[in-house]
Design a protein that fits this description.
four-stranded antiparallel sheet; 13 helices; 9 strands; alpha+beta; single chain; about 15% strand
Length: about 300
């Protein structure tokens, strides 16, 4: 049996027989555990996590593809050196902001979109058989009657989704740069900002029109989540508040939660998992507002009764 070159190289690296790996990839879209997690509004978000052997295949492919697939510099999620803080920093000194959101972002990216993207950007690097292996290994089949698609929970989805949106990012970024507008995209969250009040209004239609003209993917804007903001109100970028003074904050709710959990830990009432969660929360807050955890500790020391 003839195997794709990429499958043979992967099998050698993973210490597997080509026939064994081919069987895993053939059935990969069905090897997912499905569960739900709550969204911010309380509605369920479907997450599909691939089986361990499929994860190993996807991680190998991502290491292989990272140098081959284009990702625009406006992308602020999942790429080395990016973060929600850096995403917010890009918009720190603008006065007016437009935020938009894609509907069902990962599931909207189909296997066909991946095939077209790989052919366009990697057609000279990977054969048709190679590209078939990549698409099959990195997509999920939610139901037997549905189409193959990306999913939340697969190691390969972040890079593939970032790259598939490359032509869209190029189009929006080119227009934004020519008009002095700042554009970033954090997964399915689009942020545009400007010093000019009227500059951003036309981007609502421009984004939707650009998506409609692209050959792929078939992604749509969730109009209900389109938000205009200014320094006169509350400006939030990927969970970080941009203050009127030109600074950044994680917001009062996160800090209130951190203080409460920190106090409970001093009383010994946090579980090990909760304590680890607090450490992660404090690290995040310190990355946005340096010194917050030190202030908590100092405050605790000052409140302790003196002998």
């Amino acid at each position: 049996m003839a195997y794709a070159d990429i499958l043979l190289r992967m099998a050698a690296d993973l210490g597997m027989l080509p026939s064994q790996l081919a069987s895993i990839i053939k059935t990969a879209p069905l090897r997912y555990k499905v569960f739900t997690i709550p969204k911010r509004d309380g509605s369920p978000r479907v997450v599909a996590q691939p089986a361990r052997e499929v994860k190993a295949v996807q991680r190998w492919l991502i290491n292989e593809l990272r140098a081959q697939l284009p990702v625009h510099e406006a992308v602020m999620a999942y790429e080395p050196g990016t973060s929600i803080r850096k995403n917010a920093e890009r918009h720190l000194h603008s006065r007016f902001m437009l935020k938009m959101d894609f509907s069902n972002f990962f599931p909207s990216i189909s296997a066909e979109a991946l095939r077209l993207h790989l052919e366009l950007h990697c057609g000279d690097k990977y054969s048709l058989m190679d590209r078939h292996v990549i698409v099959r290994a990195c997509t999920w089949l939610p139901q037997r009657t549905s189409a193959l698609q990306l999913c939340i929970g697969a190691p390969s989805s972040p890079l593939l989704s970032n790259s598939v949106m490359y032509e869209f990012d190029c189009a929006v970024s080119e227009k934004a740069q020519s008009e002095g507008v700042t554009y970033t995209r954090y997964a399915d969250d689009i942020t545009l900002s400007s010093a000019d009040r009227g500059m951003l209004s036309e981007y609502v239609d421009f984004v939707s029109e650009t998506l409609a003209t692209l050959a792929y993917p078939m992604v749509e804007v969730n109009r209900r989540k389109t938000v205009h903001a200014s320094r006169a109100g509350r400006r939030v970028v990927t969970g970080i508040v941009l203050t009127p003074e030109g600074g950044m904050s994680v917001g009062r709710d996160r800090k209130r939660l951190a203080r409460s959990m920190f106090h409970r830990r001093t009383l010994g009432s946090l579980t090990a998992d909760e304590s680890a969660g607090l450490d992660g929360l404090l690290a995040f807050i310190d990355s946005v507002e340096p010194g917050f955890s030190d202030k908590l500790r100092i405050s605790l020391l000052n409140k302790k009764p003196r002998p």
